[in-house]
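Work Package 3 (structural annotation) set out to generate three-dimensional models for the target panel prioritized at the project kickoff. During this period the team completed the workflow that converts sequence records into discrete structure tokens, so that structures can be stored uniformly alongside our sequence database. As a representative example, we reproduce one entry of 375 residues exactly as it appears in the project archive.
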Amino acid sequence: MLIQIHMLQNYAPSNLNRDDTGSPKNAFFGGVQRGRISSQCLKRSIRWSETFVQAFDDDGLLARRTKLLPGLIRDELKAMDVDAEAVEAIVRRVPEIGSESGRERGRVEEGEEGILKTRQLIFLGQNEIRPLAEKLLKLYRKMGDKEWASAKIADITKDLGTSLPRSVDVAMFGRMTTSAAFEDVQAAVQVAHALSVNALSQEFDYFTAVDDISGETGAEMIGDVEFNSSTYYKYLNVHWEQLLENLGDDVEVARRAVLTLLEAAATAQPSGKQNTFAAHNLPDLVLVEVREKNLPVSYANAFLEPARQSRERTLMDDAVARLGDYMARVGRTYGLEALDRRALTAVQDYSLPGAEVVPSLTDLQKWLAAQLQEG
């Protein structure tokens, strides 16, 4: 079963996701430059949203990306009342995890008070730290101090066995490491880069700052920041069976995860330059499709020709009309009407072909919960 979420969302002037020059990210689509919000940015805003944290943090079902695994292992070993000498011997090898190829060795980061770090970020579930510390301790005691210190890290991590997290965000967005100590997880959720349905027009905000105390006239600081205002098409999908597998067939948690994802995707905002622009704009339209067949279909091509405002309708009105027309054409061409169950919620009086209109995001969640119950 496949769950697909489509959104149309207009942002006021903003710089939500910057490139290496500080400019809002963009891309060419349909031969026209568009505004873009990267999938990485969208996924992080979902993972760190209040909605996600409130739903799963207390249950230990959230993970964190970090290089600080050595310190986490040290804390666990100390909590287990392991003697200080053994703790330090074990922790000295932890920075090498993820560097089993031998090309990179763990190191103490310079300028950070000797904080030990791994060479790669590792996506760790909260429930993985204690079992990993226990396995490291058991292996250390089996080898002895001398053999432990000289053993190849590849042999150590191989003997540890893989660790599979039961974390909602890892189950959804996947995990890839180069270490045998952690099992790779195939993502159950795909998130597209959001693209503006309109042609992009970048602008610059020129600003100055004056000295409040000196009494001198004129600017003491001059700067500028690039921004734009765009209407974005957002698309993501959830492969239900993969999510279940990643969560150890815990149906209750999987259902809760999908419903929370829907709410977070609709309400979480990228954080870029929000103190400057406060572009906290919610989607005007959220469409959810449930399909028995695992056939993902993005409707981004509805906007190959950019949407435009006119005297008769707004940019959002035109975007919804283009989306509806394209949905109908794709549905007829590929026979998708019989495969889909659809519902949408919209701020305006919008409708889309084959979609049941529900009055609120809460009602949309209830509708989706019923589909998951049937599935």
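Residues 64-164 form one domain.
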